[in-house]
């Protein structure tokens, strides 16, 4: 659909059709506002098209292969068999198409006007597209983010996560620069698909903000699967070689990683294309992100911003929450966004999920904390499924309330919703004791770990 030749007025104009943008548009339309949404790429943004969803499709198929290999090791299956990477990629595209089509239908059903073109801020309450200006009482910037490359020699030889997801064949050797969420998820997936994977991370350890024992468990499991992980390494350059590519790095043990494909997964930065913040008077943070208040409003009244464009948690569900908050405030409800209880998931194998704070963070905050643990190896469902992992719960020692939950193992992202409610509601030891959890289930481990904080776990050996 091309831009109209006539200027129109709307209650809300949304720039960007990713998770935060399309959700805010639909939410506002349900409140009775007239909404115009601009998206120059595909509806769903990075998440649906080249991020969360396609990555999880790839990881799901890789997990199935790991499961079969485990059953072969147990001599339950005779052999692993062959797989078609081409079919996996076709299936990935089908899932993405289905989801994008579904969101497009929801936008249409809620009477959100969608213009498939890029737009730019043109002034107070105005957006420009192909030379035509549109007026909006309020404007919401939801332009997302783009990959951020580190300035090294030969960076042009590396691929983005989008390009790696679209490979036509599994690379024999994959080098990943960056041990963050994106890098580790794709490293995990391609390792299971048959790649020899090397991960180079500049920080001294993986995911330093998360619970150290849970992260260490995950790192050991990933290394056991064959992923070479080197932390505290600074990549110097990427260069061509006779057999492919070479990634030169230095640190405690300098070296060279030979690869057929190099993935640059060194983070993302706000996409402010079309957003002239200086001309509009919109303040930025020192990191170059759009600065917003607790109501998601920028320094310019009636201009809001959400999602990766404002930094913080670069998560689709954070953008959802921010989009909902922005709409509530556009409607005059004056409700601050609450991102204090934010589930964080890493879909590696084993997966990692956490919500709330760690014991170390609690101590930094002056809270006397106790930690409880429960291993997958003592849970009936985990044994039945052949799953390994660990659940850790952090509680306030004096108040006996839940502060954080950290899970590494199969289905960790699915269990974290249950845990998020416990942290949000500050569940007490007494409430944990009275809670009835389905048996057999992996979720039983969260209760057991919570009880273990005070030595009351029934199924854990002393």
From TrEMBL:
<feature type="disulfide bond" description="Redox-active">
    <location>
        <begin position="47"/>
        <end position="52"/>
    </location>
</feature>
<keyword id="KW-1015">Disulfide bond</keyword>
<protein>
    <recommendedName>
        <fullName>Dihydrolipoyl dehydrogenase</fullName>
        <ecNumber>1.8.1.4</ecNumber>
    </recommendedName>
</protein>
<keyword id="KW-0520">NAD</keyword>
<feature type="binding site">
    <location>
        <position position="308"/>
    </location>
    <ligand>
        <name>FAD</name>
    </ligand>
</feature>
<keyword id="KW-0676">Redox-active center</keyword>
<dbReference type="InterPro" id="IPR023753">
    <property type="entry name" value="FAD/NAD-binding_dom"/>
</dbReference>
<dbReference type="GO" id="GO:0005737">
    <property type="term" value="C:cytoplasm"/>
</dbReference>
<dbReference type="GO" id="GO:0004148">
    <property type="term" value="F:dihydrolipoyl dehydrogenase (NADH) activity"/>
</dbReference>
<dbReference type="InterPro" id="IPR012999">
    <property type="entry name" value="Pyr_OxRdtase_I_AS"/>
</dbReference>
<dbReference type="InterPro" id="IPR016156">
    <property type="entry name" value="FAD/NAD-linked_Rdtase_dimer_sf"/>
</dbReference>
<dbReference type="InterPro" id="IPR001100">
    <property type="entry name" value="Pyr_nuc-diS_OxRdtase"/>
</dbReference>
<dbReference type="Pfam" id="PF07992">
    <property type="entry name" value="Pyr_redox_2"/>
</dbReference>
<feature type="binding site">
    <location>
        <position position="201"/>
    </location>
    <ligand>
        <name>NAD(+)</name>
    </ligand>
</feature>
<dbReference type="InterPro" id="IPR050151">
    <property type="entry name" value="Class-I_Pyr_Nuc-Dis_Oxidored"/>
</dbReference>
<comment type="similarity">
    <text>Belongs to the class-I pyridine nucleotide-disulfide oxidoreductase family.</text>
</comment>
<feature type="domain" description="FAD/NAD(P)-binding">
    <location>
        <begin position="10"/>
        <end position="323"/>
    </location>
</feature>
<feature type="binding site">
    <location>
        <position position="267"/>
    </location>
    <ligand>
        <name>NAD(+)</name>
    </ligand>
</feature>
<keyword id="KW-0547">Nucleotide-binding</keyword>
<dbReference type="InterPro" id="IPR036188">
    <property type="entry name" value="FAD/NAD-bd_sf"/>
</dbReference>
<feature type="binding site">
    <location>
        <begin position="178"/>
        <end position="185"/>
    </location>
    <ligand>
        <name>NAD(+)</name>
    </ligand>
</feature>
<feature type="domain" description="Pyridine nucleotide-disulphide oxidoreductase dimerisation">
    <location>
        <begin position="342"/>
        <end position="450"/>
    </location>
</feature>
<keyword id="KW-0560">Oxidoreductase</keyword>
<keyword id="KW-0285">Flavoprotein</keyword>
<dbReference type="InterPro" id="IPR006258">
    <property type="entry name" value="Lipoamide_DH"/>
</dbReference>
<feature type="active site" description="Proton acceptor">
    <location>
        <position position="439"/>
    </location>
</feature>
<dbReference type="InterPro" id="IPR004099">
    <property type="entry name" value="Pyr_nucl-diS_OxRdtase_dimer"/>
</dbReference>
<feature type="binding site">
    <location>
        <position position="56"/>
    </location>
    <ligand>
        <name>FAD</name>
    </ligand>
</feature>
<feature type="binding site">
    <location>
        <begin position="143"/>
        <end position="145"/>
    </location>
    <ligand>
        <name>FAD</name>
    </ligand>
</feature>
<dbReference type="GO" id="GO:0006103">
    <property type="term" value="P:2-oxoglutarate metabolic process"/>
</dbReference>
<dbReference type="Pfam" id="PF02852">
    <property type="entry name" value="Pyr_redox_dim"/>
</dbReference>
<dbReference type="GO" id="GO:0050660">
    <property type="term" value="F:flavin adenine dinucleotide binding"/>
</dbReference>
<keyword id="KW-0274">FAD</keyword>
């Amino acid at each position: 659909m091309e831009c109209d030749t006539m200027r129109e007025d709307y209650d809300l104009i949304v720039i960007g059709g990713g998770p935060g943008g399309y959700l805010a548009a639909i939410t506002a339309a349900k409140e009775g506002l007239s909404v115009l949404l601009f998206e120059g790429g595909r509806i769903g943004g990075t998440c649906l098209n080249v991020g969360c969803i396609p990555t999880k499709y790839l990881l799901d198929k890789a997990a199935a292969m790991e499961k079969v290999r485990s059953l072969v090791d147990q001599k339950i299956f005779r052999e692993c068999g062959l797989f078609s990477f081409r079919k996996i990629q076709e299936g990935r595209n089908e899932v993405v198409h289905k989801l994008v089509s579904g969101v497009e239908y929801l936008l249409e059903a809620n009477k959100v006007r969608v213009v498939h073109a890029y737009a730019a801020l043109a002034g107070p309450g105005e957006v420009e597209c192909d030379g035509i200006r549109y007026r909006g009482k309020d404007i919401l910037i939801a332009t997302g983010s783009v990959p951020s490359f580190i300035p090294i020699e030969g960076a042009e030889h590396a691929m983005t996560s989008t390009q790696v997801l679209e490979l036509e064949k599994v690379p024999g050797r994959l080098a990943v620069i960056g041990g963050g969420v994106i890098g580790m998820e794709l490293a995990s997936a391609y390792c299971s698909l048959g790649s020899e994977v090397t991960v180079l991370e500049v920080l001294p350890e993986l995911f330093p903000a998360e619970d150290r024992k849970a992260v260490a468990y995950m790192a050991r499991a990933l290394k056991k699967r064959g992923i070479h992980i080197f932390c505290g390494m600074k990549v110097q350059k990427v260069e061509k070689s006779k057999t492919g590519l070479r990634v030169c790095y230095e640190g405690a043990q300098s070296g060279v990683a030979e690869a057929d494909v190099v993935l640059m997964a060194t983070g993302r930065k706000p996409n402010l294309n079309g957003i002239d913040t200086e001309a509009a008077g919109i303040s930025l943070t020192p990191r170059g992100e759009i600065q917003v208040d607790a109501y998601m409003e920028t320094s310019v009244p009636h201009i809001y911003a959400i999602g990766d464009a404002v930094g913080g948690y670069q998560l689709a569900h954070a953008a959802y929450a921010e989009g909902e908050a922005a709409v509530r405030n556009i409607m005059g409800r004056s409700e601050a966004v609450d991102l204090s209880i934010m589930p964080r998931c890493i879909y590696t194998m084993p997966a990692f999920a956490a919500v709330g704070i760690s014991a170390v963070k609690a101590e930094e905050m002056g809270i006397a904390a106790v930690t409880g643990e429960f291993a997958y190896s003592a849970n009936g469902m985990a044994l039945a499924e052949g799953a390994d992992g660990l659940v850790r719960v952090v509680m306030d020692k004096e108040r006996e309330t839940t502060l954080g939950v950290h899970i590494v193992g199969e289905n960790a992202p699915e269990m974290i919703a249950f845990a998020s409610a416990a942290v949000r509601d500050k569940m007490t030891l007494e409430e944990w004791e009275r809670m009835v959890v389905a048996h057999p289930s992996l979720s039983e481990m969260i209760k057991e770990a919570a009880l273990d904080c005070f030595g009351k776990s029934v199924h854990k050996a002393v």
